[in-house]
Amino acid sequence: MRLNVLQEKVSIVTGGSRGIGRAVVEALARAGSHVAVVATREDGARAAAESAAGHGVKTMALAADVSDPADADRIVQTVTEELGGLDVLVNNAGITRDGLLLRMSDEDFDRVVAVNLKGTFNFLRAAARVMVKKRSGSIINVSSIVGLIGNPGQTNYAASKGGVIALTKAAAKELASRKVRVNAIAPGFINTDMTADLAEGTREAALTMIPLREFGHPDHIAEAVVFLASSRSAYITGHVLNVDGGMAM
Ligand code: NAD
């Protein structure tokens, strides 16, 4: 059933070629939004955009490195011109480069922060410039429960995702007077490429920490994104929504 809660809205989804981002692209399109898919490679973005177009909305595929502010500015400008505005930004692109603290290289720390935190800032700033002018918009930043509770081997990732939560709250306070809402989602363990390589022991140990006793599906995150993107959440800003099977309560 097509719900149309985002009829004729325009959305940008970073990291939309696979995993959580791909499910978000589909869900936004199903809800009636035109969608611009951003990913590191244009072919990946194109496959997701073509599939989403099947819901009868306009789509675009764009290659970018979210850590580059010029890419963020270019994409927001292109999408605004070609799709006729910007209503929803989903900052979903993210990477891991795990390693124990004592062995963590500067390069691995810096790159994860550059993509996950600075990349979110780059698109948030570019989109906010458009949204404050028309006094409406919804920005959703994909963080992680690791940004709330930490995780061994992920000091770089935890710092970046904790930063995304702080960034979300500061931006929400700053943009609220212009009716632009900024919220975050903190997923737990979700079945995607990012979690596909977990050792069996790690997977078993993770399951014991999840009250609902299963890993999540990308659609679980996509449903939360549609809610936060739509007017159904009109009075919610600066919130962190855990979608984690109860893991971080
Ligand atoms: P994934 O690895 O399956 O997909 C990542 C996406 O980000 C891809 O589309 C990739 O092209 C894009 N991307 C990566 N670096 C980029 C860059 N520099 N510029 C532009 N795009 C880039 O990951 P996923 O599991 O779908 O995760 C999506 C988001 O959810 C990430 O922010 C991740 O940290 C977060 N998250 C995932 C889980 C999980 O269990 N899978 C848990 C918590 C949070």
Q: How would you summarize what this structure contains?
A:
The chain has helices at residues 19-30, 42-53, 69-83, 106-134, 146-149, 155-175, 193-196, 200-208, 218-229, and strands at 10-14, 34-39, 59-63, 88-91, 137-142, 180-187, 240-243.
Structural notes for this entry:
With 249 residues, this protein is α/β, with parallel strands linked by helices. The chain has helices spanning 19-30, 42-53, 69-83, 106-134, 146-149, 155-175, 193-196, 200-208, 218-229; strands at residues 10-14, 34-39, 59-63, 88-91, 137-142, 180-187, 240-243. Strands 3-2-1-4-5-6-7 form a seven-stranded parallel beta sheet, with helices on both faces. α1 (19-30) links the parallel β1 and β2. α1 (19-30) packs parallel to α2 and α3 packs parallel to α4. The chain is globular. The model has no long low-confidence stretch (mean pLDDT 97). Bound molecules: nicotinamide-adenine-dinucleotide (NAD). Nicotinamide-adenine-dinucleotide is lined by residues 14-15, 17-21, 39-40, 44, 64-67, 92-95, 115, 142, 144, 187, 189-190, 192-195.
